[in-house]
Design a protein that fits this description.
Helix content is about 25%, strand content about 20%. The chain is an alpha+beta fold. The strands form two sheets. It has a six-stranded antiparallel beta sheet. A five-stranded antiparallel beta sheet has the order 1-2-5-3-4. Strand 10 and strand 11 form a beta hairpin. It is elongated, with a radius of gyration of 23 Å.
Length: about 325
């Protein structure tokens, strides 16, 4: 059952052993010892799953028979790759590196962690049925917007840092962008507030923001404090904009310019085309630029709202 070993070029001293396991219920005979390490499940449909295990024999059985909280039984496993890892090496660090390596090479992954855009079931499906999610992507709902204005009270009360610190000329513009995002980019914003999205009041992230709309593990929309710029930044899927629009956030910018530019940003879990524009212009950017009419649809197709906020460690995002 054993095939050739493969060397991971990023780790010269670690090698994958590869096995055909399509007919096996147990792999105990294949790996009698040194069972701690990184494993890769290869499926008949060309997908992969990267994981770590203290005992890969036990973990394989859990995947095969569905004895896990994350998925049903996987009967379509074709091959197993296994990389034994010594006790003195950090499994999580290696696992994360391997997930990124597989993703960057274009291999489709069943992983949820560190794999923005996965197509696996998510807990959001229980709150918003998949059929309604598809309708939402096309602009047909679900939108229960009753009380949407009441969902921004913390930014307008006396204790809000946002109210105290944001220059008067930018405050209403920022609020307008937040309201548009909640009513057009987040499904069931009222119902899912606190579980799938939240607004941070004056966070210190990356030099400071006036406010940040967080959906899942990523900032969807934020407003940098740097030099009181009056800019808004929106993370969109890579490829939303042409390369001619790709500039840098350090590009000189005139406050009264009615345009925008795009910066390619790399996060641990994904990359994004970050749209930078004047605060208050989000609606126009998403709706009124015919050349980029798919901006709104693409944003909905990449909902950074697929992971509940209480489950950030899982890092699951889904398109």
């Amino acid at each position: 059952m054993t095939s050739s070993s493969g060397t991971n070029p990023a780790k010269a001293n670690l090698k994958y052993l590869r096995f055909n396991v399509s007919q096996l219920e147990s792999i105990s005979a294949l790996i009698p010892e040194r069972r701690r390490g990184i494993y890769v499940l290869q499926f008949f449909n060309g997908e992969f799953y990267v994981g770590q295990a203290q005992n890969v024999v036990t973990r394989f059985a859990q995947h095969r028979h569905g004895h896990t909280n994350h998925h049903e039984a996987w009967y379509d496993i074709e091959k197993l790759w296994f990389m034994p890892v010594p006790q003195d090496l950090d499994l999580t660090r290696i696992e994360n590196s391997e997930i990124r390596r597989f993703r960057e090479s274009g291999k489709p992954l069943r992983n949820r962690a560190l794999n923005l855009g996965h197509n696996q079931p998510s807990t959001l499906d229980k709150a918003v049925p998949v059929e309604e999610q598809h309708s939402w992507v096309l602009g047909d709902g679900p939108y229960d917007l009753c009380g949407i204005k009441e969902k921004l009270p913390s930014l307008g009360n006396e204790s809000s840092k946002f109210l105290k610190q944001v220059p008067d000329e930018f405050r209403d513009l920022i609020l307008a962008d937040l309201v548009f995002a909640l009513t057009n980019l987040v499904p069931e914003a009222i119902k899912l507030e606190g579980r799938y999205w939240t607004i941070s009041d004056y966070p210190s992230t990356a030099g400071g923001r006036w406010a940040t709309l967080i959906t899942g593990t990523l900032e969807l929309l934020f407003f940098p404090r740097r030099e009181a710029s009056g800019l808004s930044c929106l993370n969109t899927p890579v490829g939303t904009f042409s390369h001619s629009r790709l500039l840098s956030l350090l590009t000189p910018w005139k406050r009264n310019t009615r345009g925008f530019f795009v910066d390619r940003i790399n996060y641990d879990s994904t990359s994004a085309d970050q749209v930078v524009f004047n605060s208050g212009d989000l609606k126009r950017i998403c709706q009124n630029i015919r050349k980029y009419y798919k901006v709104l649809e693409l944003l909905r197709c990449k909902p950074c709202v697929k992971v509940p906020l209480e489950g950030l460690s899982a890092g699951i995002h889904k398109h």
